[in-house]
Amino acid sequence: MISEPEMVPEGYFGAAELPQQRVAADDVVTEGQGQGPGGPRRARPAWLWALGGAVVASAVWAGGLYVHATAEPDLGGYRESRNLCLDAELNALTAAIGERVDQGSAWRSTHESLDDVSCYIEMRPQGYELPTDEDGNELGSLPSVSVGYTLHKKTDPGPEFEGMMAARHTAVEDTAVDDAAVDDATGADGTTALRRVDGLGELAFVVRDSGGVTLEVLDGQAVVSLSTTSDWDAETGEPLTDVSDFEPMLVEDMRALLARLKS
């Protein structure tokens, strides 16, 4: 007796092979013509080779991404300063205020991620003599100049610079610097005034308060500051020298210092 044929599920041994399920000759890559010890090698589908190529390409891309992420930033020609007092010539400020009392005091702190240096210089106006007490000790102070330079060797200081300036000072005004703005730079409540300076580095601000004027500049990986502080009357505590008039000299000396730090 002939029974009805049993239906074998697709994929099992004995199942019927439909024409569309057969592997086309173009989809098979044959490995060699010879036969190894284990007999003829099985043909591998082309998609398996494509998958291997994708894995290799991903590994190459990941390696390139790692190299890019660990690359050192471009310092833009800026170098480390071993003695900022020597690098800061301050010709314009010297002509306006007076000669340096001495070479100045320099500090330096270096690390693989940044180089941070500073300098403090006192200047004596021509014919200026400090008052003394009965024992001959000088009273009061001399006009001074402070210089700061930080070279960031790993990270970009740009995103933090403007925010740092705004956080440090309470009044922010985005205007060009001019001589007419000097008189009203400090608010009646004693707050400092912060203004944008164009044409100096990537981003520059001048800051004025009752004690002096500071110019801060961001240029690539370098952050440089230059400030003047007045001398003070020993009896009244009032400033004796109006350093607010020296702002153009700060800009001139800053421009020269930036160029020297690239030499």
Write the layout of secondary structure elements.
Blueprint: E1 28-29, E2 44-45, H1 46-69, H2 84-87, H3 91-97, E3 99-100, E4 105-110, E5 114-124, E6 144-152, H4 158-168, E7 171-173, E8 193-197, E9 203-209, E10 212-219, E11 222-229, H5 247-261
Parallel strand pairs: 7-8
Antiparallel strand pairs: 1-2, 3-5, 4-5, 5-6, 6-11, 8-9, 9-10, 10-11
Helix pairs in contact: 3-5
Describe this structure in words.
β9 and β10 form a beta hairpin. The chain is of the alpha+beta class and 263 residues long. Strands 3, 4, 5, 6, 7, 8, 9, 10 and 11 form a 9-stranded mixed β-sheet that branches. Strands 1-2 form a two-stranded antiparallel sheet. The chain is elongated and about 105 Å long. The chain has 2 domains: 51 residues; 178 residues, no CATH class. α3 packs antiparallel against α5. The protein contains 5 helices and 11 strands, in the order ββαααββββαβββββα.
Concise structural overview:
The chain is an alpha+beta fold.
Number of domain units: 2
Radius of gyration of CA atoms, rounded to a whole number? 37 Å
Helix content: 10-25%
Shape: elongated
Detail the poorly predicted runs.
Answer: 172-186
For the largest beta-sheet, the strand count, sense and barrel status come to: 9 strands, mixed
Order of helices and strands: EEHHHEEEEHEEEEEH
Residue-averaged pLDDT, rounded?
77
Structural class: alpha+beta
In DSSP terms (H or I, runs of 4 or more residues), the helix count works out at: 5
Distance between the termini: 105 Å
Strand fraction equals 15-25%
Write down how many β-strands occur, each being a DSSP E stretch of 2 or more residues: 11
